[in-house]
Task: structure prediction
Amino acid sequence: MEISISGPKDFYLSIYHIAQEAREKGLVFYGAGFWGDLSAQIFSLLGVEPSCFCDDDPEKIGRFYNDRIPILSFEESKRRFSNAVWIATVNSDTVDAPRKRLNRKLRENGLLSAASGFHPVRYLYLLEEAGILEAVKTETDESPDRFHARALRKLVILNHMANSGCVYFDNLVDGHPDLLNIVLLGHYIPLQEVYQKRLQFLEDEPLVAEVASQMSPYLQTRFPEKLYEKMFFRAAQHYLVNDQGEPENRVYLPVKAFVRHLSAELMGKGRISYAYLLKAIFAAYYNTLGRKYDASRNYWIFYQRHKENYNMQEIAGLLSPGDFDAVKYIFIVREPIQHFFSWMNRFVLRAPHDTRLLFGRANSYLNRLRCGMGLMLQNRSGVPKDDVRVVRFEDVKQKHRGVMDAFCHWLGIEYDSILEQTTVNGIQIYFPVAGKTGAVITGNDQSAVNKKDYSELLSEFDIVRLKIVFQQFSHAYQYACDVPDFRSFAKSFREELFDYPFRFEQTLDEACAMAYAVEGDARGDEPRCGRLIRRLFSEYMDGYEDVEYYPILVPEDV
Result:
């Protein structure tokens, strides 16, 4: 299969393109272990065999893979196959992982290329069942009870403040017959970014293969879950459990069936728009579930974008006027002091190593503080306010029926009692309790909104100062806020207000130092979080202008 390559070259476009390049130049797997073996199996499906394996272990050098493919030293592999496609076949994409070290060595030796971005864990789905690639074919099925991408004409996008209940809200809407939902889709897959970098340049088999590779977190697997943990967060292993606290594996889809339904929506369509990609994924997902399309229903795609400080123009710029008949946005927010404490406590103070590395970076914690200022909810985007609603996490928990009734009314669909349960694909889901093996809570548990003791991370003075900064957001969304208007303060007083460190700064600084050390930077070069945070607050208050905020979704009286 000959494939013409166009588009960005900073990352491979598809496994088909790598296979084509490997046929022309040769293929070297750097790592003759478990993942090297799986990589060889994956490429064999495309008729490609590695020129050699390369390894740093003296005990492996000189042996043969499958009795015919040599395992060579790095130096010998480079001498013989310097123009080949080189791929580091080890798992894990964390910043301190072996893959990063091997790729650094490839880069230093001029062997790293766009094709080196291939990661075998993304393509394990090809090994799940025999004949999966054969399921990628043009298939016409005009059955009236089948979901088709072209028939999905309405889109509602959920976004959030981070750790503000978006997973909970996502699970609530899941079972409604008019809401087509793939729980946590935007949380697991940066679909918009992948489309812009890769998928928009693909068509037919390469397009189907790469979209399916992105959907691996939702597909059944025979491989141990630990193989995925560093690259993919398998939904049921982290969030979606049964009443015993065990992963709810019934939510996963059969691989070949999903690929077949996805092929029916993508094959023969050429290069597709972002809108069509969304529609095709949702249509394939619901056809795989065996759901029946009903032309009399008022279907909405419910898509969780999952991005802090979301700019609605990001997706609007990818949509054409005829793509959807309606596009709406809903944001879930949380009382800002409780929100700030919650994510700091969960993702920094008590977080595992890899999570602390991520949230210790300045752009991460500054983004979450910007959420508390409500910058994403200021009506500056040009999106009509009738198309945007803001729902309070506390209302969803405490006025559940009224909020969901108002949400349905806003979309023009009927309320359904399934909205009173947290489900995935219609299966009842519970949430694991952090630090308590086997313990679960229901979605309607109230403990998350009753937290009032923040002293571990915030002093009383810290709380007052944060309330001052977050007050415009608080007033807009009817949260109690008993502090003076910061616009009445002199500039010198505002500056003096933030001369004193926050109690949480040491915790953030430690996480930041750890992240910088892992990246190889000298300790002491990392930015001090207090200075960055105080500058953020000062610039916000100095430049604040009165602006309209998008309207709140008021719970219906029920």
User: Anything to note?
Assistant: Confidence is low (pLDDT under 50) at residues 1-8. The two ends are 61 Å apart (CA to CA). The first strand starts at residue 27 and ends at 30.
